[in-house]
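Fig. S4 source data, part A: sequence.
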Amino acid sequence: MRSRIKMAAKIAASCGQFRAVKFPFRWLVLRTFCSGEAFENKGNTTSFFNPEIQSLLKKLTGRNLDKIYAVRKGELEVPSYKLMTDAEYLEVQRKNEEEAEAMLEMPPVMDEREEIDEIIEENEELAQFSESNYVFTDISTSESDRTRSITVREPRGRLRKAVWDERDRLNFIYFPKPGRQYEIPELLTDEGMQTVFQQNRHEDVLDLACVQFEPDSADYIRIHHRTYEDLLKSKKYDILRSTRHYGGLLYYLATQQKINQLLNDMMDMEQWDDCVDLAKLYILCHPKDEIATRSEKNNLIGFSLLRAFLRECATQEMLKKLEDHMEHLTEEQNMGTSSNSVN
């Protein structure tokens, strides 16, 4: 019991210190891959990088500047004040908007990479030459972590290409990245994540996962999915709203057909434009579903599209909320028309 308490305290302390380190997250996430094919999703869902998907995710993410520029723990600085003309103020505001857009750039969502299983040669003359593997790494700076040649000569004489785990370790040794650790940080272990989730610091977990792992690695995907599921269970979606991770959450919920709970919350908060966009996101992610075929055939948009989605994929209670809202809008429009007629 004491050991668990000590570990929880250690994890909490490391989490509290995490924000104080200014990792260049954007550089670490947007890496160079072998080819554009690495970005293509497999299966029946539409790729995360589809332009329509990206546009919807950015729109749904929102841009709350107060949250984006919120002071991080460990980043307290002495405030400064400056007198500006209207033109200077507008220019600063424009730059803040551009910076916010860059800060909201979403980490990639990719399929898990296939394991490397390629044997170059079998040489029995070299069998038992050594009891250990010999690893040969091209450390040319002109090569990326994805393209550099890394091969392994096994004690039995086989020469093969290094598997992903070996590649990650060798790349770390020769080309370490700021913030990345050789061992998985305790914060990203199952017990560590559970502790941090209780502190509502899901964003910290996702930020650190982006630094520690490649976007198509099993650990990166596992940690993101585990975080999304905890947010779904606790209904704490707003933790990621107006952050660069909100789009990944929405895409996960849409592809896994789990948007109804979030959609219901949006209805309760009367975020009707977001409701329409979320339904559209679901339909775009599942182009072969019946609802997608029907909406395209009938050219459904706006509330008509949302109504069709609710009838097909949601509950009667959610459908009634929409009908009540549309009835209320009709009443307001009629009242406005009557008022104009009297005037």
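Fig. S4 source data, part B ends here. The radius of gyration is 25 Å.
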